[in-house]
Write a structure and sequence with these properties.
The complex is a heterodimer of chains A (112) and B (116). With 112 residues, chain A is an all-beta fold. By secondary structure, chain B is an all-beta fold. In chain B, a hairpin with a 4-residue loop joins strand 7 and strand 8. The radius of gyration of chain B is 14 Å and the shape is globular. Chain B starts with a strand and ends with a strand. Classes of the chains: A mainly beta (112), B mainly beta (116). Chains A and B meet through strand 4, strand 5, strand 9 and strand 10 of A and strand 5 and strand 10 of B.
Chain lengths: 112, 116
């Protein structure tokens, strides 16, 4: 158990819908990262927050957004969902942006 | 931009045999290099990492990797495979610069199968 929690574990929804994925980092970690793992794209970095502020952005679609709250948990919002958004979404956290990243168990999203 | 190439999406070894998983990277700046393991239906677990210093890095579960700058490689090895090593392995690189955000760029993964 990495200490990073993600909810929900599974999510099934329809095209065009909006969902919110939640991540609670390890106690004391200030940095949160979101990654997408899909069969065709592999593991891709989406976005990073550090102590509430956006730190780095990767291949994140405009339909996707994220934020980190004062209690350091983070949410990833996915809107206007398409079939191709079906994937495993991982959250990771680290103490600082130069330290080891610890991964949560992921949220498996299926868009029908 | 950084990239990682893992040669061989599937590797099969016999129990007790040497495990060798290949990783080559491309980076315009000094990299940090990582190996992660993913067991079925689980998140990624850090096996080992290279930042600076000694180029031979030892990790958990008997794995080690050697950073070879001249070959831009960071291959993962284990002298004797165990059935419990069957999993998917990911090599990753991040920018060592302090202000780079530390995002990881992953390779495509190598699924290790261990035959009894």
């Amino acid at each position: 158990d990495s200490g990073v929690t993600q909810t929900p574990k599974h999510l099934i929804t329809a095209t065009g819908q909006r969902v919110t994925l939640r991540c609670s980092p390890r106690s004391g970690d200030l940095s949160v990262y979101w990654y997408q793992q899909s069969l065709d794209q592999g593991l891709q970095f989406l976005i990073q927050y550090y102590n509430g502020e956006e730190r780095a952005k990767g291949n994140i679609l405009e339909r996707f957004s994220a934020q980190q709250f004062p209690d350091l948990h983070s949410e990833l919002n996915l809107s206007s969902l398409e079939l191709g958004d079906s994937a495993l979404y991982f959250c990771a956290s680290s103490v600082d942006f130069a330290q080891n990243q610890y991964f949560g168990p992921g949220t498996r999203l299926l868009v029908l | 931009a950084q990239s990682v190439t893992q040669l061989g999406s599937h590797v099969s070894v016999s129990e007790g045999a040497l495990v060798l998983l290949r990783c080559n990277y491309s980076s315009s700046v000094p990299p940090y290099l990582f190996w992660y393991v993913q067991y079925p239906n689980q998140g990624l677990q850090l096996l080992l990492k290279y930042t600076t210093g000694a180029t031979l890095v030892k990790g958990i579960n008997g794995f080690e990797a050697e950073f070879k700058k001249s070959e831009t490689s960071f291959h993962l090895t284990k002298p004797s495979a165990h059935m419990s090593d069957a999993a998917e392995y990911f090599c990753a690189v991040s920018d060592a610069a302090a202000n780079a955000g530390n995002m990881l760029t992953f390779g495509g993964g190598t699924r290790l199968m261990v035959k009894p």
